[in-house]
Q: What sequence folds into this?
């Protein structure tokens, strides 16, 4: 019964966080001098909150649900969800390293360090994925002329890499403001969730 109650609580919370993430995904804005289609939003933050309370699977579900919602509500200019898949991967590359590092260093400094590492890893790995997969997929599905390797490298170094670093640091700054205000509450929620899980395990022994 405890497991059932905790599962319902988790599912309701994940659904709520996914809805918030979807709304935040719609509230996006470009930053000069980057192209207008590179936009900052803060939709990964609800998924990060979900991870801190319920674990990494919650973050995966929030990221997945927000992108599914956005794809069905707004569609994709390529006809296939290339951008949504990229957004899903980028979100997890930011959130999961942050979650695991913070779990090792549960302090404000630890969270700051975790967010910076998450931002850097997300930026670097997404640059590699854009070079080999994402940008070629965009040009293919949009029927654009294929870019040369040199053009792709220049585009990534001058645009995608610095943009993702700025986006990651912007999200980190906003989250640290939230964490300063909500850190105690988040820890209580995570502890309560862990307590319920342990209580259920003890009853099964």
A:
């Amino acid at each position: 019964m405890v497991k059932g109650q905790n599962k319902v609580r988790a599912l309701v919370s994940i659904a709520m966080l996914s809805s918030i993430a979807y709304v935040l995904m719609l509230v996006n804005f470009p930053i000069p001098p980057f192209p207008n289609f590179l936009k900052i939003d803060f939709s990964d933050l609800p998924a990060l909150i979900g991870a801190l309370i319920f674990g990494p699977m919650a973050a995966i579900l929030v990221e997945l649900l927000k992108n599914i919602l956005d794809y069905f509500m707004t569609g994709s200019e390529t006809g296939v969800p290339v951008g949504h898949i990229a957004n899903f991967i980028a979100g997890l590359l930011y959130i999961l390293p942050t979650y695991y590092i913070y779990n090792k260093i549960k302090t404000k400094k630890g969270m700051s360090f975790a967010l910076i590492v998450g931002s850097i890893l997300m930026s670097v790995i997404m640059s590699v994925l854009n070079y080999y997969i994402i940008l070629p997929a965009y040009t293919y599905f949009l029927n654009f002329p294929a870019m040369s390797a040199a053009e792709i490298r220049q585009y990534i170094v001058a645009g995608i890499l610095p943009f993702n670093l700025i986006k990651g640091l912007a999200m980190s700054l906003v989250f640290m403001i939230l964490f300063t205000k909500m850190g105690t509450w988040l820890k209580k929620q995570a502890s309560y969730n862990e307590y319920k899980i342990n209580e259920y395990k003890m009853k099964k022994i």
About this structure: Residues 2-204 form a domain with the Arp2/3 complex 21 kDa subunit ARPC3 fold (CATH 1.10.1760.20).
